[in-house]
Write the structure tokens for this entry.
Amino acid sequence: MNTEWLPALILLVPLCGALLALANRRSAPYFSVLAAFITLLLAISAAWQVEAHGPLSGSDGLFYLDALGALYLLPVSFVYFTASLYAIGYLWARQQEQDKDAAEPRYRQYFPLMNVFALVILAVPLVANLALMWIAIELTTVFSAFLVAYEDRAEALEAAWKYVALTSMGAMIALLGVLMLYYGTHAAGQAPTWDGLMTAAPHMSAPLLLLAFVLWLIGFGAKTGLVPMHTWLPDAHSQAPASVCAVLSGVETSAALYMLLRIYPALVVNPGIHDPAAWYITAGLITVGSAAFMLIQVHDFKRMFAYSTIEHMGIILTACGIGAAVHEQGTIYQLFAHGFTKSFCFFAAGLAGIIFGTQEIVKVRGLISRSPAVGWALILGTLAIAGAPPFALFLSEFEILDTGYSSGQYLSTGLLTAFIVIAFIALTYQATRIAFGTPDPAQEHTSPAMKIPRSSLAAMVIAFVPVLIFGFYLPPPLVHLVHEAAQLLEVQG
Amino acid sequence: MITVSPIMLSIAGSVAALFVVFGLGVMVSRQMLASLRFFMGQSVALTLSALVLADALHTVNLLWVALITFVTKVIAVPLVLRWAAGEEIYGRREVDQALEIPASVLVAAVFALVGWFAVAPVLPTLHDVPFAAINLPTGLIMVLWGAFTVALRRESVAQMMGLLIMENGAFFGSIAIVHNLTVIAEIAAAVDVPIVALVIGLLIRSIRRVTGSTRVGTLDKLHEH
Amino acid sequence: MSALWTHLVLNLCQVGFILLFAPLVEGVLHRLEEIIQGKSGVSIWQTYRDIWKLFAKDEVVSEQSTWVFRFAPIVAFVMPLFVVLLIPALTAYPLFFAFMGDMVAVGFLMAISGFFVALGGMDTGNLYAAVGASRTHMVGFLAEPVFIMVFFSVSYVANSTIPYFVNATWGASWTSMLQPAHFMVILAFFLLILADEGRIPVDSPAGKVEIAMIGHSKGLEYSGTSAALMKWGGANKLMVLALVFVNVLVTPWGLAQSTQWTAVIAAVGLVLLKLLAFVIILALVETTLAKLRLFRISEFLAVAFIICLFAVSIRLTGIA
């Protein structure tokens, strides 16, 4: 099989989906789901190819996909598919909730943008050139701005504005770093790709590389939600539709984190940079710590999952610094599993929001008795994201902490453990408050039981499959892929 | 190594001075329209710098950068912004600020110092790259100022101005060191700026439609209680 | 005639040059602004007529006032003439009095004139004059650091604060002209002229409302000869500042290089052309800007200050 055009095809399908959705309003959702499903299949086959034959490249070096990219591509395409399916019923239910007389769903703005949004996220692991990667990340903000502001209220616009202002600001800072790396790779006679960067890194001037990295850490950090550039994240997640939150939290924030992870080995091999891990551990621990304490006093359950995303971004960054990248179920697996788990959490939270008509934790009781399916989904999702066994994140977090303790980094690993435990307690406490207990009879009276949209329920069930399975069993090809990806981040300092 | 005549270096330095002064104008001007004009002036300075460097370094690519910059930033972006902000860009006298201007000007001076010290260790390694010593610190300073402008202003159009001068700064810094951006990246970057401007412009229009003003300082509903 | 005498005569010629053309410069400025504003405007010779008319009129002096009131117009008239002895108005080489004082002395002389005008305004007990004096000094205090920074950066570049040497340093070659620090100093100095001369956006010279005036309300009590001297002195001051700006900072060319009379007369023409260019720019700036509110003036001067600061730090760090 000729794999040359596979990366191009993966990007072409969502584009066709967007154009079809734009052309035909009535069947826009179905075109989108179909495009997303084809993309998922293509992504799986691309990952398969990478696993079997090594990195894919195509179109004269425009595209390049290695094991790490493939491992990121999989959750992206999966969440793209489930979120598209979920959105059909969810958006309609939300619209009916706000406007009882709504005649037909207002999909026109949503689905074309959703497809383009997915397209640019998919482009991040696929394109070879650093500048194009930057452009893709910049465009993720641009195309998702109106998805965040989809409900068109003042609060939603406020959230969208904060999101755009802060993350574009980050992107501009990162741009200067990207262009510096461009110079660095060019001066060493290499192409501006990840491979070129790794080859050039030992010969690059250390201050240049370090400055470029710091610009990236601030710039992409804003996109990832590193504290203190995280303020947009809870706001955007509380206002955006749950299907958008799933993509934003599950995979979009990790696009910038993916960049930060991939530059790490280049820093390590440069002899002039002392202790690059300290940057990662410091930035990561500040983020995890702040997020853990914010989780205790959070009032809105969509914001709660947003803070949990911040926490996970911090964990992944810290883990990279601690050295868990090299362990097969460490950093990369955490990144991989977080995408699946967090999107599932937002699906459950979105449906809970529809059932209760509010997102405030204090006003919400007895979700399980109102809807057992959504209630248990919320509980299981919270447990999974908090890192309880038997879910995938338990394995990776355990691995990360184990690496930290066995390599003698007691202070940083100890702090990380404490923060993870605090976050775990906070998350499970809040989730049990929502799920158990008796529903407020007054509230049941005022908000008549909303019918749970079938497509959303189906999407939630599909999303639960990998969350459950990856905790017990990872298919051998995937194990191999994770191993390969870990090799890419493993370097001798 | 390319040798560059001292006169070219002085011209490039003067253009950099112009660039900084226009950036300062964007940051401190009280009126939206004045701020927009300063931004256009700054983009012209960026174009000039690209032309000067193209001539001094004999790089055809920089001519493209100059052309793209001029078309997108001096012509397209102002049109989009005027359309986005509507009559409010002419009507409102003063833009809200989070900090008084004299104080923010001093902060800007500190930022300039920070930018300079951040680049200072890099410059010796770039001694064989002409113009890097002028353009790189200037560019980084403008990136910092842009970020500061976004933080400082309580007004969507003015915040967007901050984002745009950050982008100008990134390009100003990089034209001295990178002349070999692949054509595709250049085209993509050229498309990127108008798209960003367009989408942010649309968002500003939505904010104006829903809240009745382009002010974003009044949007402060979302926070932890 | 010995060189010394020639220099002395040329120096006095510079004074004559100012006295003769200062009202013209002001007249052209007014006319241009009115043309830009779409009015037909008064003749460019109007300032001469005003001065002539005022000299012919009787003078009324308040009984409550002291000698300061009568002395102030003379100081305001004479100080710009002292300044012109120190600066390259027509010749590129130093003249007889060139080493009597440097740019700091120029600043001092201007400050003395400002000081006496403010005292003279307050002397009669006129309320508006007192308000104007205090506002002028507020602007003055804010402008002071900028003045000092301009001197620093100029002296740092030229290794001298004697205007003739500064002029020679910039004019030496294109490389020395086209320096970032030079640009910034020019810009800051231009903003200073706007503030010091009470032009828009700091003050509106054409304003007729006393309560909104900054500098112009100080001269309201003068009449007859004193008013003529104040008006002429004001025109002189504007022209002297413009000369410092164009001859020392912006375009250090076109001045007489020899003591030949033809060279000097050619310089008169060229300097007037440069002043015309300056006046056009000033008119454009004034008509396109709006007057700032009083408390925004500090912002205006803060920007001028920071530009100067950059000019100095660019030189110090050796970036360019």
Summary: Residues 6-211 of chain B form one domain. Residues 94 and 193 of chain B are 27 Å apart (CA to CA). Chain B touches chain A through 51 residues (CB under 8 Å).
